[in-house]
Amino acid sequence: MSVLTRNEAQTRAQLLDVHRYTVDLDLTTGDETFDSRTAIRFTAHAAGDTFVEIKPDTLRSISLDGHPLDPQRLDRNRYPLDRLTPGPHELTVDATMHYSRTGEGMHRFTDPADGETYVYTQLFLDDAPRVFAAFDQPDLKSVFDVTVTAPTGWTVLGNGTTTQAGEGRWTIAPTPPISTYLAAVAAGPWHSVTTHHAGLPFGIHCRRSLAPHLDADADEILGITRACYDRYHEKFDEPYPFDSYDQAFVPEFNAGAMENPGLVTFRDEYIYRSAVTDTERQTRAVTIAHEMAHMWFGDLVTLTWWDDIWLNESFAEYMGYQTLTEATFPRALNSVRPGETPFPGTWTDFGVARKGWGYDADQRPTTHPVAPDPHAVPDTASALLNFDGISYAKGASALRQLVTWLGEKDFLAGINTHFARHKFANATLDDFIDNLAGATDRDVHAWAATWLRTTGIDTLTAHVENAGNSWNLTVDRAGNRPHRITVGTYDHSLDTQTGADQLTPRNRFELDIPQDHTATTRPGHRPDLIVLNDQDLTYAKIRLDPDSWNTALTHLSGIPDALTRAVIWNTARDMVRDGDLHPTVHLTAARTHLPYETDLALVQGVLGFATTHIADRYLTPQDRPTALATLTSLSRDLLRRTEGLTAKDWEQGPGTTTPGTPDPGLRLTAVRHFINAATQPDTIQDWLREGTAPGGPELDPELRWRILTRLAVLGAIDETAIAHELDKDPSATGQEGAARCHAALPTDQAKKAAWKAMFSDDSLSNYLFTATAQGFWQPEQTELLHPYVARYYPDAIELAARRGPAIADAAGRHAFPAHAIDPDSIHLGEQALHNPALTPALRRKLTDQLDDARRALAVRNAH
């Protein structure tokens, strides 16, 4: 396959205007392929040569202006269009196309729960030619006019409202001008819940087998959708630019969601068939808000080339969290009173769950500026590599800092100018900055140069001195970005009821840090705790002064604000990763403070880091059992804290209890981590046999498969037990659970079978591949797995070249031997990076994974 280069795209954009795609898809032709007929109306501005992209199974015919062309001239995914004459043209293409099992192009899925089949498109970034012939680049926007022939009983969804024009025949309303990667179709026997809001049809859709679970959450999902829609219309002058708003929860989706205008697609794990916490519901809500923001930034105004992908994702990431924080929802959750938001802690969750993603990515050798140099993104293959924590989390953090520095009024004024000037067209970073600069007298161009065009993380270190009746704070900045932060100060006090030592806020003040050393003098005695970046408004590593750090470590749970606690937990996380804090000190702090933590996002984030980083990688195999014992004890403490839940509490679910009563979400988190940390099978075997954890919750499918996976790792079950559970839960997630369990069994036969399924048999879908990979590598099985470390690199390289970017990403992310933390294993990986057969997607993943392994080894050696 030929990838599109930036130069080729610029040349083609200068030559062509594309007016309309008329696409006719026939989904009734078989299980492996579908028919695609496309007519493209376009104008050539001058005489010249160009090409159209298509990736067919069979190219049956192609003609230009009614004149047949030779199908044999197709070269990989390009068909040449030579000697175009100036003026209007029509290209018609008739082809048979392959369905996908990897979430790329037209993905086809048969639900094992009921045998029903569903298809949907995922055309980002360069997969539109897997479905129809296209001039596939973001700055050749066009109207899309799509018709679909589908099996009887199916419903077809698209970018516009759909109409059934006869038995199995559907028409989708023509779109405004959109980019090729945003065209969308989803077809199948969907279960749908529909309504109207603000004069538009709104719908949510899922597989029939998930219908009861969608119905249970429909009011919440639609309430969030309406609230975000209304809030965006308060922020943005431009109205919603499309004729309907459908949200389809689709199977085996590679991303969290995709912003197709009028038809947003989500991974259908967001339709919860098992118990989840309020933090997980909040994640779904943020995703809904994120994708809706894209309707303006990404769909109405689209990037010109992929170097500006951060504009799409950073903006939507920032707006998703901010808008969810601002919006006042209808009474969607039982715990929400009128005038309240059910998700008030979105920025705390961002700080503990997303920001670390950006910090980690920004310290690897593959780091790049938020807004990379155009020459750093020469083609579509390199563009795919920038969908990372920098484009999302760091970019959103930069925008939050920009709003803090600029003021929201001027920020929104610049954004609305940007929409007005470029609606239904394309724009660049320079356009964006110019439009912001026009709304303020601040030097936005200079801000952009330091924040968006540079790499790495600044470090802000506090130094404090007493000065009689005042105290001096000096902040050393390692880096070159200006920061506007909030400094929080706290003093010890005694709780009059309990006599406990706690921290009481003294005050907060803003501090601009424009230079390497910034000093300020404050009246009064020195506070007991001084926290830089108290409200987490900037993107930087924070180092507290020694006295404040000691106070923070011993009184973390006594700090009243969750966002402040998130800043300190992130500081501890950074210090562990940098070798400045022993991993066991972090574990001890977690063991000490999490039993009293009131913010569930912090509990989940800290426990997640303690498990996947500290216990699994940063501590030696000899120290791992002690770490797991600590996590088990911590989980028991959380379980004791949440005793007393009633059957009604479990029935209503997380977020529905009154203040001061046990939280089902916290107990669910404790149960999950107790299972994950189990080193002996007896207790969790008893839970599985009894169908419940003592005091609840009852074991739903997610918890049952979680226990079975851990028992498989410990060698406490066999394939018969896995098959028995699969008989009880033959759903798609059951199939994934069984694949994960089979791969986790500590036998040579199980490992051989799993390896063959991943690397030799290309029949696994993207999700089943991922589940198998997740089960395969286990820290407890180091000796058994040792021979596979060397096998991984050549096998993964061949697999990525054979199956494409989605599987390459999964192979690098999930099938990598992440627990092989030793010089020899790292050396094998470094040698593999010199293999010329490495695809860009896999090379990026391996580079990052090996850097993480080197960091883990350095942490071990530092202590």
- Can you give the helix content as a percent range? 40-55%
| Average pLDDT number | 95
Strand order of the largest sheet: 5-4-7-2-1-10-13-12
User: Uncertain spans, ≥5 residues at pLDDT below 50?
Assistant: 329-341, 655-659
Largest pleated sheet: 8 strands, mixed
- Count of separate DSSP helical elements: 27
Instruction: From the alpha carbons, calculate the radius of gyration and give it in angstroms.
Output: 27 Å
Which structural class do the helices and strands define? alpha+beta
The end-to-end span amounts to 48 Å
Explain this structure to me?
The chain has 863 residues and is α+β, with helices and mostly antiparallel strands. The strands form seven sheets. An eight-stranded mixed beta sheet has the order 5-4-7-2-1-10-13-12. Helix 19 (701-713) packs parallel to helix 21, helix 21 packs parallel to helix 23 and helix 24 (782-803) runs parallel beside helix 26 (823-832). The longest helix is centred in the N-terminal third of the chain and has 25 residues, at 211-235. The two termini are 48 Å apart. 52% of the residues are buried.
List the keywords.
alpha+beta, 21% strand, 28 strands, 42% helix, globular, eight-stranded mixed beta sheet, 27 helices
Short description:
The protein is an alpha+beta fold. The protein contains 27 helices and 28 strands.
